[in-house]
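Journal club prep — side note

Before the paper discussion, L.F. wants everyone to see what a predicted structure for a comparable chain looks like in token form. Sequence:
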Amino acid sequence: MTRQIIRLTGEDRVPFLQGLVTNDVTRAPCWAAILTPQGKYLADFLVIPDGDALLIDVDARLADDLIRRLSMYKLRSKVALEAVDMPVARGTGPAPEGAVADPRHPALGWRHYGVAGDDGTDWDAIRVAHCIPETLVELIPNDTYILEAGFERLHGVDFRKGCYVGQEVTARMKHKTELRKGLTTLRIDGAAPIGTPITAEGREVGTVFTQSGGQAIAHVRHDRVAPDMQAGEARLSPL
């Protein structure tokens, strides 16, 4: 997974980002997302304080679009955005001095900015075990709703911080409806390509995504989850 670091500087950097993203950046390090006005996911990233700057740690495939989108909102804000060449090491063992704990879940360990390397952790196994979505796998731009993807459980949204793009839809989903769909972890026997539909008794249940160790992350309609489901040649069942 290649990451791109975007350096956000300027005296308005905190209020600027605070008004756009799902989490409270005054309490960074944090995990956050930027949404469409209709409340759909566009990109997720870690926000890391770094002296007189904020580092935005994003999947490199979404970096250019994220810079363009943030730049659209600059207006008169005194901020500057720059993609910088900064390696990121990560691991789950003892954290080196200067490393930052991943704010999503303790099992995701730490990240160390300015240092290259990976300790060989099986990240997919950790994500599946704890139902943690991945950019451009379970998190699909212009399609995913963050509450269905577990952002509240994984500390990626703050309902007390005030307005941000897509906040109204997200708050309505939180307070006025019961989520009928969402990510869950299922038992899987066999394997299926990511994106394979899940069915049970001829009805579509959802879609299977990352798989590891006999389990799979899936996006499902909760009321259609059944004891025996299929995704291609694979069989699935609740844990």
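L.F.'s comment for the group: The radius of gyration is 19 Å. Keep this in mind when we get to the figures.
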